[in-house]
Fold this sequence. Notes:
The protein is α/β, with parallel strands linked by helices. Helix content is 38%, strand content 17%. The strands form 4 sheets. A 6-stranded mixed sheet has the order 2-5-4-3-1-6, with helices on both faces. A 5-stranded parallel sheet has the order 8-11-14-7-15. Strands 9-10 form a two-stranded antiparallel sheet.
Amino acid sequence: xxxxxxxxxxxxxxxxxxxxxxxxxxxxxxxxxxxxxxxxxxxxxxxxxxxxxxxxxxxxxxxxxxxxxxxxxxxxxxxxxxxxxxxxxxxxxxxxxxxxxxxxxxxxxxxxxxxxxxxxxxxxxxxxxxxxxxxxxxxxxxxxxxxxxxxxxxxxxxxxxxxxxxxxxxxxxxxxxxxxxxxxxxxxxxxxxxxxxxxxxxxxxxxxxxxxxxxxxxxxxxxxxxxxxxxxxxxxxxxxxxxxxxxxxxxxxxxxxxxxxxxxxxxxxxxxxxxxxxxxxxxxxxxxxxxxxxxxxxxxxxxxxxxxxxxxxxxxxxxxxxxxxxxxxxxxxxxxxxxxxxxxxxxxxxxxxxxxxxxxxxxxxxxxxxxxxxxxxxxxxxxxxxxxxxxxxxxxxxxxxxxxxxxxxxxxxxxxxxxxxxxxxxxxxxxxxxxxxxxxxxxxxxxxxxxxxxxxxxxxxxxxxxxxxxxxxxxxxxxxxxxxxxxxxxxxxxxxxxxxxxxxxxxxxxxxxxxxxxxxxxxxxx
Length: 526
């Protein structure tokens, strides 16, 4: 069902079903709550609810009616569950207590209920609460109930959810989702205030970039972490551009992103550096540098890249113009040593120009008072597989938000479609990606999963999607021969992956952009 059809459908619905002769449209303007409900796998139970005009969480009838004085609060409900329900003898019934208490005390006439399928991508029914809680002792499972007038629909909300910042889970089965952005958009359609399909949708990349920008605004510094080839370096450029140029929207256009990035870098609004093992405080903040004058050597204080961009940002702190420092391979340096005592100044509330607990420190060489301005933002990148370098300690971690970039097959597929790559090339790339990384997030049959060392996370070891983005078979063969296989061999050499007797057979086939002994799943482009 399209949004236009849904709007028409709901228009008839709200005219037909209203509390006390009114309409849902009128009721919605007064109500403040939206509830999400999942009816479970047994469709017959939900059919009964639709026909009977009620909602039920179909469990825990053995504790009796919530109208009883003995079950008037959450503690009493919890104890009743622990006393009467076998699964809660040793398990905390937190979500169950919350659902029962909400049904009795927090779900009100006029509230909207949306029923979603288990996969979270469709709304299968919309309802209005038309009465309070009641107990039905005669039904085998539908005992705890709330009066709801249902209307079945079939609305695919995949596109809407792709723009959502909020959780999409159907656990617990009944929950208040009033504050979730996707729920508010659905409410706008129900009230006749919006039509989602009339708005040009953002791409998923655009939406994710916006979320990361919001994280950066709040935390002031983030680290993008992930396996090689997951697009960390390009993502930093997108985030920096989006922060410094809020009107920019072409995040799917690589050239436009990089052109804008170059412009902002030339104007001094973005600075870039790479940490390495020999980098120190004197390079990053300030230090004494020798200068030959005649026959003598003099030492002068020279500002490093961090102090330099802080000073630029400080001049613009009142007009709140953002400045961004990108630190590539941040974990390759000794971060605590490089930042020194300035690590404390990174915290948002310690910043000058807006921090509630603004502090400054005297620098050791220039003896100047120094603070980090509130309009300076730091973006770091780090490879999760890089064990040859130092680690980031807890003091540093507390001051950064960490965003993990995952290897994604759909990035390959979308890129191939955008570049008009031949179908057989795209299929070969996707099949290789699947055999190496798996076809799902926790696929245990993939090469990486079967070779993984015990102390590593599966996602950290996957080969990034950029290694599989090729316009022809010859290029794909080159990438496999000179990039992917050497990377995997290095992982095996370092003990990140375990070697096996069949490895050479895999590598030989991969050199030709083919899968070794492919299963049906891995030979498809799905």
